[in-house]
Amino acid sequence: MTTAMPLALGTGASSGIGEAAASRPRTEAGVDGRPRAIDRVVTSYKDAPTRTLAAGGVTFAYRELGPTTGVPVIFLTHLAATLDNWDPRVVDGIAAQHRVITFDNRGVGASTGSTPDTIRAMARDAIAFIRALGFAEVDLLGFSMGGMIAQVIAQDEPRLVRRMILAGTGPAGGAGSEPGAALSNLDLIRGLLTLQDPKQVLFFTGTPNGRRAGRQFLARLHERTEHRDKAISLRAYRAQRRAIHRWALERPADLSVIRRPVLVATGERDRMVPTKRSVDLARRLPDSELVIYPDAGHGGIFQFHEQFVATALAFLAR
Whole-model pTM? Predict the structure, then answer.
């Protein structure tokens, strides 16, 4: 079996670790409007109930699983994604040892409001959501667009973030930072013409390994058969596209201000966010390590989910 190629980058010292907000039983509205207790431990993402929480004028839809204590891992998702687009093997793997919370961005899926068209506004929404949950410190796992959001959170609210995992993403600005916009449209059309999910060609390589991994990933996304999330609207998708385009045109940020440990992961043949952008991201972070998965594309962490989960758990435990 092929294995990942780890490359440690950066020599900055890790920041001190604070205490997470104390866990307490809560009762919140479910998607049906009825109150539900959320102190029951859920171990499988396909069984995690969808809950709602009001914050910053938005009612956020979210799911929670894993231990009910400890520093939570907040998942920040990719362009056009809803709650049902997270690979359950990744979610369940992290939740085996950590409290995991996924949520729909404003205006996406079952979350209310109008979708922002800047990454910074999405970061503000995420911060409001995290604060409303009562957490003073969290770990972040951001994939693709979610990795962009995570970078802004870490810059604007450094005390809120303990550790970050950034997958399939890159820094703001710079040449080649936004090929995914054109690719996403082309591959959406290609997917319709070939009767296959666009994620097969957007996230995975065209090699036998990549095609097989894509089929397996797409099958896992449908393991949840009840109470699935709403699909993203075309209006929300366009707003997210504009946000990513603006991110690409921004002046490169000073990432040396992010003093938290960061794990950067990518596939060696990422077409959405070119691999070189992830390499650049890792080099510019003071305390980072980089993992590149061979014969993998944008969805490298899903293709190599077993290796990724093991690496992520080791990173979070340090």
Answer: 0.86
